[in-house]
């Protein structure tokens, strides 16, 4: 390897920003090759990364001796095939979350990493978000005692723009948004609670966007104004939606974790605001975030019983980071961790096992949602794979 880790990028679409974050010539990593079958995406890559080799075939990247590691930033349903090929090519790989859209394909990825010994990293960047790190530190510090229940409300204010105008709107590409969008939060719930979902039950519906008849024709590109920060409100004014919409725009999930913790998650894609609200209740207190970025805070109530006290017992400002970038500054930290891991096998806060368990919970919850809320059991991962990844992807 050179001083800069040479990166190949598969997919230069919605998460191209992660590739640009990783392009740091002279600073640890450089993107040397990009593959994308979409001419427009490849043209964008050429303008943003003029020194990179451009390909329509991903195999050209995997076979390139000037590529040391790979970022997979393609649509979710393609992750398993591309990840397994990258691992077999001996290229350490970062797979954007979710790991894939089925439990079986996730297990294929982990099994391939185990069999090849090639390093596997998953892009669960919320583990690096300042608000999540703050809540995690408070929980580990005993601020609420032993965690007993976690509640999450996810207001997806730009959901109509980001998830109902392209491939995200189709089950064949995502399984459903209770997997695709919630994989972040399910992973955080598991991290805060110290366990994985073992039983799930969910309800949901396509309440708003399914009735909107203003759809693009099949094959027609998205409109230039497909996303605007201030427009497209109320949700019924959305135009040029995806031709097929068969995923839910609102969902509610209940979980029992393998350590006994009870958790709940709610997601709405037609809310006017966009943020996540977490509540963690233990046997000696409660914490809650108000806002999830700079200017917000995490409040802790743990000294006594009372009515509502807005001042709380502890108020912790959410730290600001120098490079906010995407996801509240999490993306640069995610890339930093991946580079260390790809080079040296350094310990990571993200986990392939946790990524697989987030998908497994989301898949089974979606099955429950579409079956009238019938409870589902979340399948465990093979013990030898759990042991391998918990050892830091080493044989012994």
Mean pLDDT rating: 96
Shape: globular
Proportion in β-strands: 15-25%
Helix/strand order, N-terminal first: EHEHEHEHEHEHEHHHHEEEEEEEHHEH
> What's the CATH H-level homologous superfamily of the domain at 127-329?
Dihydrodipicolinate Reductase, domain 2
CATH topology of the domain at 127-329: Dihydrodipicolinate Reductase, domain 2
**Major sheet: order of its strands?**
14-13-12-11-7-10-9-8-15
Family: Belongs to the Gfo/Idh/MocA family.
Domain Gfo/Idh/MocA-like oxidoreductase N-terminal: 6-124
Domain Gfo/Idh/MocA-like oxidoreductase C-terminal: 137-373
Protein name: Gfo/Idh/MocA family oxidoreductase
Report on the structure:
The protein is α/β, with parallel strands linked by helices and 396 residues long. The protein has a domain at 127-329: Dihydrodipicolinate Reductase, domain 2 (2-Layer Sandwich), CATH 3.30.360.10. Helices cover 31% and strands 22% of the residues. The protein is built from 13 helices and 15 strands. It has helices at 16-22, 39-48, 58-62, 79-88, 103-116, 130-140, 159-163, 171-174, 177-180, 183-193, 330-344, 352-369, 383-390; strands spanning 5-10, 29-35, 53-55, 69-72, 93-96, 120-123, 147-155, 197-205, 250-257, 262-268, 275-282, 285-290, 297-301, 314-317, 376-377. The strands form two sheets. It has a nine-stranded mixed β-sheet, with helices on one face. A six-stranded parallel β-sheet has the order 3-2-1-4-5-6, with helices on both faces. α4 (79-88) packs parallel to α5 (103-116) and α10 crosses α12. The model has no long low-confidence stretch (mean pLDDT 96). Residues 6-124 form the Gfo/Idh/MocA-like oxidoreductase N-terminal domain. Residues 137-373 form the Gfo/Idh/MocA-like oxidoreductase C-terminal domain.
């Amino acid at each position: 390897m050179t001083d800069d880790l040479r990166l190949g990028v598969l997919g230069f679409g919605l998460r191209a920003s992660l590739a640009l974050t990783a392009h740091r010539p002279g600073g640890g990593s450089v993107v040397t090759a990009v593959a994308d079958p979409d001419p427009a995406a490849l043209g964008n890559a050429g303008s943003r990364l003029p020194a990179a080799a451009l390909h329509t075939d991903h195999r050209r990247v995997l076979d390139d001796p000037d590529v040391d590691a790979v970022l997979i930033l393609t649509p979710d349903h393609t992750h398993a095939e591309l990840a397994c090929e990258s691992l077999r090519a001996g290229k350490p790989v970062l797979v954007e979350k979710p790991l894939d859209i089925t439990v079986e394909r996730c297990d294929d990825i982990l099994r391939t990493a185990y069999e090849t010994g090639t390093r596997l990293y998953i892009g669960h960047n919320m583990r690096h978000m300042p608000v999540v790190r703050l809540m995690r530190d408070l929980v580990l510090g005993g601020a609420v005692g032993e965690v007993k229940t976690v509640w999450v409300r996810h207001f997806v204010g730009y959901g109509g723009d980001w998830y109902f105008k392209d491939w995200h709107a189709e089950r064949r590409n995502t399984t459903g948004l209770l997997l695709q969008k919630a994989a972040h939060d399910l992973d955080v719930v598991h991290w805060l609670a110290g366990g994985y979902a073992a039983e799930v039950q969910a309800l949901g519906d396509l309440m708003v966007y399914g009735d909107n008849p203003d759809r693009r024709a099949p094959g027609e590109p998205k409109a230039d104004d497909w996303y605007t920060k201030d427009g497209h409100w109320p949700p019924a004014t959305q135009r040029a939606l995806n031709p097929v919409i068969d995923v839910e725009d609102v969902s509610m999930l209940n979980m029992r974790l393998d350590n006994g913790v009870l958790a709940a998650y709610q997601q709405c894609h037609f809310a006017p605001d966009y943020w996540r609200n977490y509540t963690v209740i233990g046997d000696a207190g409660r914490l809650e975030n108000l806002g999830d970025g700079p200017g917000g805070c995490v409040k802790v109530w743990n000294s006594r019983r009372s009515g509502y006290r807005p001042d709380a017992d502890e108020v912790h400002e959410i730290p600001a980071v120098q490079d906010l970038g995407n996801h509240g500054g999490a993306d640069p930290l995610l890339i930093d961790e991946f580079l260390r891991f790809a080079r040296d096998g350094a310990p990571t806060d993200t986990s392939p096992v946790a990524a697989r368990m987030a998908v497994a919970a989301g898949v089974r919850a979606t099955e429950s949602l579409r079956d009238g809320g019938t409870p589902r059991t979340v399948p465990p991962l093979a013990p030898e794979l759990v042991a391998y990844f918990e050892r830091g992807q080493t044989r012994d």
